[in-house]
Amino acid sequence: xxxxxxxxxxxxxxxxxxxxxxxxxxxxxxxxxxxxxxxxxxxxxxxxxxxxxxxxxxxxxxxxxxxxxxxxxxxxxxxxxxxxxxxxxxxxxxxxxxxxxxxxxxxxxxxxxxxxxxxxxxxxxxxxxxxxxxxxxxxxxxxxxxxxxxxxxxxxxxxxxxxxxxxxx
Length: 169
Description:
It contains four helices and eight strands; from the N terminus they run E-H-H-E-E-E-E-H-E-H-E-E. The protein has 169 residues and is α+β, with helices and mostly antiparallel strands. An eight-stranded mixed β-sheet has the order 1-2-3-5-6-8-7-4. Strand 5, helix 3 (109-123) and strand 6 (128-134) form a beta-alpha-beta unit. Helix 1 (15-31) crosses helix 2 (44-52). The longest helix is centred in the first third of the chain and has 17 residues, at 15-31. The radius of gyration is 15 Å and the shape is globular.
């Protein structure tokens, strides 16, 4: 069967599935030995806030939500104080809370969600995507390198140091 994959804004009906996917990702980070997402964030309030602000996006395969991310235009205060230098100073989309369900983990869905975010950005005249991750999130560090993101320096979020990346589209 050929699957159909869609990328769309998350709705309140998606909230339980999104939270389940995030819980699975939190557990994968823990099992990988990463400290990222091990302090009660993200949580159900995060999911509901993303949906209310219309910044939550889901990747849907055959009507099944399989991946999640928040995409935020020009709004990440921590990025103003980078120890390093961004590639650009114009408008940008921030990618936060990328998570894929256990049922599709390791099958390219994180790559697909980034491709869809980049396409959405270009469609809206945004030619920069910025993202950060924990120094010990090996899976995300590998993905960002594979997708051509450039390491720009360090930022501090939720009391922790993060590696910051940017890709010009």
